[in-house]
Amino acid sequence: MVPDKRPSTDDRSATDTATTEVGSTSADFLAPGDDAPAELVDVLVYGLVGGIAGSVLSFVPFATVLGGAVAGYLCGGRSADALKTGTVAGVVMTLPFAVIVFALLFFLGFAGAPAEFGLIALAVVGLAAVYTLGSGIVGGYLGHYLRGQL
C-alpha cells in the first residue's frame, strides 16, 4: 500500500497562509492561473463572445460595458489582456451598427439625399464607435476585476 503524499493543512507554508488572507498580496486581482498572459487566440475568441453578448443585450442600458465585462471575465490573464479583449468586444459590437448605417447611407445616396446628411451620419457613426469601443474597454477591465474578486 502506498502512503498518501498529499500535504495536510498543517504543512502549509507561511506564504500560502499569507495569500489566503484578504488584502495581503499584490495578486488580489488575479484568479488562480491568471498570472500568465493570455494567448492571442483567447483574446480574440473571448472578445468575439463578449461582442456577441453585448450585441444581443443591446436593448439593456450599458450593454456595451456588459459585453466587455463578459469578455474580460472569461479571458483571464493580466489586466492588459482584459483591455485587449474588451477592445475586440467593442469592435465586434460596433460592426452591426456601422453596417446598418452605411447601408442606409448607400441607399439614401441613390434617393438624392444631400451630402450634408451623409457627413452628419458619418460623424454620428464615429462618435458611436468611440463610445462603443471605450465602454467595451472599460467593461473588459471591470470583468477582469470581478474575476479576481469572485
Instruction: Classify the secondary structure makeup into a structural class.
Output: mainly alpha
Low-pLDDT residue spans: 12-26
Number of domains: 1
Radius of gyration: 22 Å
**Overall pLDDT, averaged?**
79
- Strand percentage: under 5%
Alpha carbon gap, first and last residue: 40 Å
Report the count of strand segments: 0
Total number of helices: 5
The run of helices and strands is: HHHHH
Largest sheet: none
What is the helical fraction, as a range of percent? over 70%
Q: Indicate the overall shape.
A: elongated
Topology:
Layout: H1 14-20, H2 40-56, H3 63-75, H4 79-111, H5 115-149
Molecular structure report:
InterPro entries: DUF5518. Residues 1-14 have a biased composition (Basic and acidic residues). This is DUF5518 domain-containing protein. Keywords: Membrane, Transmembrane, Transmembrane helix. Residues 1-23 are annotated as: Disordered. The chain is an all-alpha fold and 150 residues long. The protein has one domain. The protein contains five helices and no strands. The chain has helices at residues 14-20, 40-56, 63-75, 79-111, 115-149. Helix 2 (40-56) runs antiparallel to helix 3 (63-75). The longest helix is centred in the last third of the chain and has 35 residues, at 115-149. The two termini are 40 Å apart. Residues 12-26 have low confidence and may be disordered.
